[in-house]
Every structure is written in structure tokens, then in C-alpha cells.
Amino acid sequence: MTGSSHIGFEEEALVHMDAVYRFALRLTGSPDRAEDLVQDTYLRAWRSWDQYQRGTRARSWLFTIARNLFLREEERGKRHDAILREETAPGTGGTGAVSVVNPVWVSTLGSDPEGRFFDSIVDDEVLRAIDQLPEEYRTAVVLSDVEGLSYEEIGALMEIPVGTVKSRLFRGRRRLQKVLYDFAVEMGYIAPAASTSDAGEG
Amino acid sequence: MILDAIRRFFGGSDEPREPELSCQEALARVYELMDGELDPAEAARVDRHFRICAACYPHLKLEECFRERVRSALGETPVPDEVRTRVLELLAREGEAGRG
């Protein structure tokens, strides 16, 4: 398979297929679409392998290709605009603009301050909550929490400044925590907080 | 200047000690700490706050518990064998076409 112009493809690109598939699953939310996206990503990577700078991180490069292919197919419309409005609102450049005190922390202080309730929630429910996040938050959270990419790598991949990466991670994680917290309360895994039931995002 | 001198005096070291962080400052950096985005000195400072502050410590634990849950829900999904096979076949055909 590997012609002379594709030296290193197996060692540098194919070894990341698990990670690319995981990322594709979260982007598309469906195994069928994820499979198509993985195929398209590797085909594109194969064809442009000579443009890949050897020794840079192939995994980030593959994620970039996958995301660009995915976004091209998606209508980015309203959701994207909503995110941009949120991000360009006055004083939201970093994490400091929204209260540093997480509403979920406040809600769980009396009953489960260390967040053990997260462990009661089954995988499917966690995945469903992640898939409900707008793509801009979902991608940042998955690439940071699961794939361990740095803010700089995520910024390069999503073509946004590091400050915006921070802001997306901050907001994305809080939204996700709120959804999981609400689910845990609904399921009786955790007692509802007495007076902070409407604590939402700041 | 004078304050620095007093701090150095009481710190008992030539190296000036950074003032302790407030809870607000530590909480604002919780993700950067967990994500390994702080330089070592700053990370040590933030980490120290969480270890000595009984009010902030549970917040760090909750964030760690949350991250672990997200990781374990997502992290163990290998690409199915049939998908891997199809990708390899696709690339083999592409390689053949490239040579032909």
C-alpha cells in the first residue's frame, strides 16, 4: 500500500485511527457517519501526505482534516452565530468574565461536594450530553479532556486564539456539568439543592 | 521594596515568595491547572492553594471527577475492525491508482 511517496504514513497517520474514529463519532454523533468521515479523512490525508510536515503532530493534523470535512457538510447557521455572539459579548475574552464559582459546585456543596454523582451516570447518558453541546464547545472539550491536546494545538486546529479556546472549554465544561447534574437530580442520584435550582450559566 | 524585604526576612530565604493566591484567583485557574497549561511555578502555587484551602479543595475534586467521567465514557472506543479494514482497502486502491 505504501508507495515511496507515502513513507511514514502507516507509522505516523494510521496509528491514530482509534483517536480519529473517536473524534469522528463525537463530531457526527453516528457510527455510520463516523465511518464515512474516517474514510474521507484518511483519503484526504493520503492524498496530501506530501504537504504534511514530518515530525509535527500527525494526530492534530488528522483531527483538523476530519473537522474541516465535517464542517463543510454541516450547516453552521444559527448555532455558530449564537456561539460567536456569546464569545464577542463584552468582557468574555477569558474565563474571568463569568463567575469563577461554578453553579454546580454550589448546588452540590451540601450533598456531594466532590462530584461523586458523576460516577453514577451511565456512559450513554454522558455521551448524549456531550453530543448535545454545540460543535464549537464539543470539539474543544473532547480534544482537551479525552485526547489531551494543548490549548495551542486546539487553537491551531480550530483556527481560534488561545483565549477563545479557554473560553470554549470553560463554557463547554460548565454546560456539560449542568446537564449531567440535572440528569443526576432527575434520576435521584443526588438530592436537589435547596435554593439554587435555577442556577444557570452566568 | 520594604514589603519584599520583610517577606524575604520572614520567609527565611533569598528567594522572594509569591503571595498566596486568593480563592477567586485559584478557582479561576482550575482548568489551566488541570490542563497542564500553567508554568511549573504557577502550577505549584495554584495547586498549593487547593491543597490547603478546605473551601476550594472539593471544587478541584469535582472537576477531576467530572473529567474522569468524560474520559472513561469516551476514551475506550477503538475503531471497529471492519472500519479499519475498509480504510486500509480504500488506501490500497488509492495507492494502486496512484502507481498506475
Brief synopsis:
The complex is a heterodimer of chains A (202) and B (100). By secondary structure, chain A is mainly α. Chain A has ten helices and no strands.
Largest sheet of chain B: none
- Give the oligomeric state of the chains in this entry, treating copies of one chain as homo and distinct chains as hetero: heterodimer
Instruction: Work out the strand percent of chain B.
Output: under 5%
- Low-confidence segments of chain B, given as residue ranges, are none
Would you tell me the overall average pLDDT of chain A? 84
Q: What's the tally of helices of chain B?
A: 6
Biggest interface goes to: A-B, 55 and 41 residues
Q: Tally of extended strands of chain A?
A: 0
Number of helices of chain A: 10
* Shape field of chain A: elongated
Helices and strands of chain B, in order, run as HHHHHH
Please give the share of residues in helix of chain B: over 70%
What does this structure look like?
The complex is a heterodimer of chains A (202) and B (100). Chain A has 202 residues and is mainly alpha-helical. Chain A has two domains: 4-73, RNA polymerase sigma factor, region 2, helix turn helix motif (Rna Polymerase Sigma Factor, Chain: A); 92-186, Winged helix-like DNA-binding domain superfamily/Winged helix DNA-binding domain (Arc Repressor Mutant, subunit A). Chain A contains ten helices and no strands. In chain A, helix 4 (58-73) runs parallel beside helix 9 (151-158). The longest helix of chain A has 25 residues, at 162-186. The model of chain A is unreliable at 90-96 and 196-202 (pLDDT under 50). With 100 residues, chain B is an all-alpha fold. In chain B, 71% of the residues lie in helices and 0% in strands. Chain B contains six helices and no strands. The longest helix of chain B has 19 residues, at 81-99. The radius of gyration of chain B is 25 Å and the shape is elongated. The termini of chain B are far apart. The mean pLDDT of chain B is 85.
